[in-house]
Design goal:
CATH topology of the largest domain: TIM Barrel
CATH architecture of the largest domain: Alpha-Beta Barrel
Number of domains: 4
CATH class of the largest domain: Alpha Beta
CATH superfamily of the largest domain: EAL domain
Bound molecules: ligand C2E, magnesium ion
Low-confidence stretches: none
Radius of gyration: 72 Å
Helix content: 40-55%
Largest sheet: 8 strands, mixed, barrel
Length: about 725
């Protein structure tokens, strides 16, 4: 049987069987009716025969009034199976004798109908002695008698023979059963016959076609390639519609198979290409990701990856309570390598530096290039004490120490060194930004201090922050009139009179109070504001001291000059112009240049100083004895005076006394005047006098004075004198 519950085979079977069943029922019914009729007419014929056989006996018994004989005869007849009852009536309809089931006067007749057979009626009745319904065939026949042959027949009564309908039914019952069994067997045989043939010739081939159609699904290419299902149909070779359909279908399957094979091969080609593309795409992606996260030159992690790793280190640090170092590494003098040997060599150096740094690190560490010559490192720290950090920093310094040899013969081996700043998580920052900032700060400090490594310290951080705030704030300090000048008298030890005044600048910061020039001048030198400051000091000093110079033309105003201004070639002209504007002679102005700054770029310094002295300014070497003075240069400087640094007098010992004396002698031998700075006591003043020092400057003589105080100091109480009161104050008070 096919797999369909409501397949075409079953449906056909149902229809055929249905039709056959109806026909069978009709035919069987006709057969049954015919049989019934036949049985009925047989019974009626027998009834007729009974009439013929016993009629004469009934007449003779009636004629002779032998009723008992009649009753015996009737009882005998009733024993015949077809006879349900028999009765004899007189011509006046009185019952003469009867036997079995008969219609009597007591019987209740429900219906009565004549049949086609002569003399036969069908009667439905209820007998008086039972409530049972009966259906009887009643055959009525006349009983006639003639006394002699010549006499006419005379009606003497009627005979009634009754047959029960059940008798007919009993007769036909077996025939009925046989007919029905016969029909059923025929029906079953036919049904099985159809079942087999419909299944074989229609349902199966159709199912094979359906299966073959199902196999046309491109996803079941293997099924499509085997035509087993169709072969069964095709092989039957019945030249019928199904065969035609199957062969056409098979051709269609082969065509689809061909197409599918082509499509499959194209698909697999396409898949291969897609796979290839995906591979190359993911390779390109990897390269792109590598490029995005690594420095193209050195292949080290770049800023993005470094920050990412730093965040990971912080996460691990938080979770495991571990510490690590962030190191900021900056190569010193890399710019000059680039400038001198070109960028190609610069790149080689960077690659080599990256290689060397990487060789020091453990696999857990990270070294990254942030750009230029800036490198950063992340190093797990086991103990985390400062020695450990120092050891690691020394490792980097050492690995960079050996000279880098270039392939090019024209280029000598290059020495490289680095400044390293380190900060520890979580001591010096708990987030990436502050760790990087603090490591940078430490690195800048190392760079500025000329040391290889500096480990972050909060104090240094504070100092740098203050410096950067001051640098920022200084931009508007002049504009906001926050700067002012103080003046410190310098005593001529021979005349015991003040013949010189040193101009010292002060900064009244709006929130931080008075800031010493020792703090803000180096900042100005770094930021470049020193040029602006120098001009402002010069203008203010000239303007404020002009009246005193007018009174005493020999008064010398000493103004400090940062060596940085020597980088400005126009500075002699600028200063000269200010003097002109203030109407003060350059002869009244002495310029103090510190020993160290004057020696930074000696040729440039000598040139500018020569120009300045050429315009009438005099010059002094300030803070003499603290730097590395080269006597050969010193003698070339157009200076008239040496100012011995105050540290010699402030930390006076036996040796420094000798040094002071030696310096005074040296200055005198070079024809230079000498100023002793830091005279805080009478003893020091006396000592300098005894050593034949020319000038003395210090708190003992006078504190630095405000412009008003200077005025009070210099202008005599009696204006008529018209001279400056240059007598020393000799005070012990604290400096401003
Ligand atoms: P300097 O030129 O050597 O100035 C002398 C410094 O010594 C002054 O400090 C002064 O107040 C201090 N001083 C004077 N006598 C004594 C003393 O007896 N004992 C002690 N302990 N100190 C004494 P100040 O004003 O703080 O200036 C410091 C430095 O700042 C100056 O050293 C100078 O190099 C620089 N400076 C000051 N004003 C200017 C300026 O306008 N321009 C430039 N470029 N530098 C300036
Ligand atoms: Mg000075
Ligand atoms: Mg000085």
């Amino acid at each position: 049987m096919n797999k369909f519950k409501d397949g075409i085979g079953l449906r056909l079977l149902r229809y055929v069987f249905g039709c056959y069943l109806i026909v069978t029922i009709l035919v069987t019914s006709v057969q049954l009716i015919t049989e019934y009729r036949h049985a009925k007419s047989n019974i009626f014929n027998q009834t007729y025969e009974l009439e013929a056989s016993f009629k004469d006996s009934f007449i003779s018994s009636m004629w002779s009034f032998d009723t008992p004989q009649l009753e015996v005869t009737l009882a005998g007849i009733t024993k015949i199976d077809i006879v349900a009852g028999i009765k004899i009536m007189t011509e006046k309809n009185q019952i003469l004798a009867y036997s079995g089931n008969v219609v009597t006067a007591q019987s209740q007749i429900l219906s009565s109908s004549n049949l086609s057979e002569p003399g036969i009626k069908k009667i439905k009745l209820i007998q008086a002695d039972s409530a049972e319904r009966q259906t009887l065939f009643e055959y009525k026949f006349p009983l006639k008698h003639r006394q002699s042959k010549s006499d006419p027949l005379k009606l003497i009564g009627y005979g009634y023979i009754y047959t029960d309908v059940n008798t007919i039914i009993a007769r036909v019952k077996y025939s009925f059963i046989l007919i029905i069994i016969n029909s059923l067997i025929k029906t079953a045989a036919l049904w099985l016959f159809f079942l087999y043939f419909i299944n074989r010739f229609i349902a199966k081939p159709l199912e094979a076609l359906a299966n073959a159609a199902e196999a046309l699904n491109p996803e079941k290419l293997e099924t499509l390639s085997s035509s087993k299902e169709l072969d069964n149909v095709v092989q039957t070779k019945h030249n019928d519609e199904l065969y035609l359909l199957a062969t056409n279908f098979d051709q269609m399957r082969i065509a689809i198979l061909d197409k599918m094979t082509v499509i499959e091969s194209q698909k697999s080609q396409l898949e291969e290409r897609v796979l290839d593309r995906t591979k190359s795409l993911s390779k390109a992606n990897d390269e792109l990701r590598h490029l995005a996260l690594h420095d193209a030159l050195t292949s080290l992690p770049n800023r993005t990856l470094f920050k990412d790793r730093l965040e990971q280190f912080i996460e691990i640090g938080k979770r495991n309570n571990t510490r690590f170092i962030v190191a900021s590494i900056d190569l010193s003098g890399f710019k000059s390598i680039n400038d001198n040997y070109g960028h190609q060599i610069g790149d080689l150096i960077l690659v080599e530096v990256a290689r060397r740094l990487s060789s020091v690190f453990r696999s857990t560490d990270t070294v990254a290039r942030m750009g230029g010559d800036e490198f950063y490192a992340l190093l797990a720290l086991e103990r985390g004490d400062d020695n450990d950090v120092e050891t690691l920093a020394q490792k980097f310094i050492k690995v960079l120490e050996s000279p880098i040899l270039c392939d090019e013969k024209s280029i000598p081996s290059i020495l490289i060194s680095a400044n390293i700043g380190t900060a520890i998580y979580p001591l010096h920052g708990e987030d990436s930004a502050s760790l990087i900032k603090n490591a940078d700060m430490a690195m800048y400090h190392a760079k500025n201090s000329g040391i290889h490594h500096f480990h972050y310290s909060a104090e240094e951080d504070f100092r740098l922050k203050r410096q950067s705030q001051l640098a920022q704030d200084f931009n508007i300090a002049i504009e906001n009139n926050e700067l002012f000048l103080v003046y410190q008298p310098i005593l001529n030890l021979a005349s015991k009179r003040v013949t010189k005044i040193e101009v010292l600048v002060r900064w009244q910061h709006p929130t931080l109070g008075i800031i010493s020039p020792v703090e803000f001048i180096p900042i100005c030198e770094r930021t470049g504001s020193i040029h602006q400051l120098t001009q402002w000091v010069f203008q203010q000093a000239c303007r404020q001291c002009k009246p005193y110079c007018d009174v005493d033309g020999s008064l010398s105003i000493s103004i400090n000059l940062s060596g940085r201004v020597f980088s400005q070639p126009q500075i002699p002209l600028i200063l000269e112009n200010i003097c002109k504007q203030s109407n003060i002679s350059p002869f009244n102005i002495n310029l103090e240049v510190t020993e160290t700054t004057a020696m930074e770029k000696p040729d440039q310094a000598i040139d500018i100083m020569n120009q300045l002295t050429g315009k009438g300014f005099t010059m002094s070497i300030d803070d003499f004895g603290t730097g590395y003075s080269s006597l050969s240069y010193l003698i070339m400087l157009p200076v008239k005076e040496l100012k011995i640094d105050k540290s010699f007098l402030l930390n006076l010992g036996k040796n420094s006394e000798k040094v002071i004396k030696a310096m005074i002698n040296l200055a005198h031998s070079l024809n230079l005047k000498v100023v002793g700075e830091g005279v805080e006591t009478k003893e020091l003043l006396d000592m300098l006098t005894e050593m034949e020092c020319d000038y003395a400057q210090g708190y003992y003589i006078s504190m630095p004075l405000s412009a008003d105080e200077l005025h009070t100091f210099l202008i005599p109480t009696n204006p008529a004198q018209n001279t400056l009161n240059t007598a020393p104050i000799f005070t012990e008070s604290q400096p401003i």
